[in-house]
Amino acid sequence: MEKIKNNRVVRAIGFNRIVLIGVIILLYIMFSVLTPLLHAGTTFVSYERIMSALNYAYFIGFMALGVTFVIATGGIDFSIGPVMFASAVISGYCLTKYNIPLPLCIVISLLIGLAFGILNGYFVAYRFLPSFITSMASMQIAKGIGSVFTKTQTVTWPGTGNDNSWYRYLVKWNNIPTGFIILCLVAVICAIVLHKTRAGRYMLCIGSNKEAVRLSGVNTKKWEMLAYMICGLLAGIAAIFYVGAYTTVQPGLGDTFNNEAIAACVMGGTSMAGGLASILGAIIGAIIVALMQEGILAMGFTISYQYVLTGLIVLVAVTADIMSRKRKN
Q: Is residue 114 part of a domain?
């Protein structure tokens, strides 16, 4: 095993990433074989299935990218799912009810996500509240504010063929998965920020040893807050890709999606203890979550089975991370 890990190619790509890519391949083969057996007349091997899984992976992927920055600092954000829904439902209500131009509604979605990121970052970094408590409070605020603003009404964004439907080209254009291209581009930017800039290095150092970084003269509050702001902004972006894929959004929801985004991060190699993060791993983790969701539904099971599988995978990933850290220590 050590020989494989020390191989030049394996080290360049990353052993953990190769394992995750292998998991994607195995899942696809497994669902392709089991779907016709368990659900007669249904096939998993189709372009439509792949596109459906990708639609789910986009918004999970953007949220996973955002929460990676937060977890890198040693924190957690349980509000990203409801914040995404609040951003989508409020901006969509502005579009359909008040006829605000679509480009401005997209900006509104981003600003709502950013506002929640600032809120979380301020209370965690400057008021020293635990990130768990802060994000739980923000989660409730996001669920409530979306319901209050829309009077608990479901909001439907313009469908295909409407003059305002061009935003859907962000997800798919002429059967080309443009959403995947944009997700990869954003992931590259996030990777550069996290691993090649001073801000990213400070975030990772804060996750490793916040007190030591503070004593060295670094303004830890500023960089820690920035991580939450990035997370909130990406939740706002995720909202646009959610409605681009599904158009209809209901206020007061989103709890399960933040769990899946966090699961994607952990599966991808981001340590819950902080100080270690993988942007590429988060994207691969999001694809695994989306593939499981599509495969389980294709086999005729309810979505509850996905929650069970995701929870088990997270337990295994966190346990492996803890054991790895112990061996290194």
A: yes
* Tens of pLDDT, residues 249-263: 999 889 889 889 999
* CA dist list (Å): 168 to 54, 172, 233: 14, 6, 19
Half-sphere exposure of 215 (CA within 13 A, CB side): 4
E strand or H helix at 240: helix 220-246
Please report, for the domain that includes residue 249, its CATH number.
1.10.3470
Classified as helix, coil or strand, 78 is coil
Residues 271, 267: Cα–Cα separation, whole Å: 9
Helix 47-72 and helix 178-196: axis angle, to 10°?
A: 20
Residue 229 to residue 84: CA distance in whole angstroms: 14
CB atoms within 10 A of CB 185: 10
Residue whose structure tokens are 């479901």:
154
Number of domains in the chain: 1
> Which pLDDT tens digit goes with each residue over 126-170?
999 999 999 999 999 999 999 999 999 999 999 877 778 899 999
Rounded CA separation 167/318 (Å): 37
Task: Supply the pTM of this predicted model.
Answer: 0.94
Residue 328 lies in a domain: no
> For residue 15, is it within any domain?
no
d(CA 100, CA 82): 23
**Per-residue pLDDT band at 98 (split at 50, 70, 90):** very high
The residue segments making up the domain with residue 189 are 48-315
Q: What is the pLDDT at residue 329? A: 63
Least confident interval from 6-20, 39-53, 165-179, 261-275: 6-20
Show the tokens assigned to 41.
């007349």
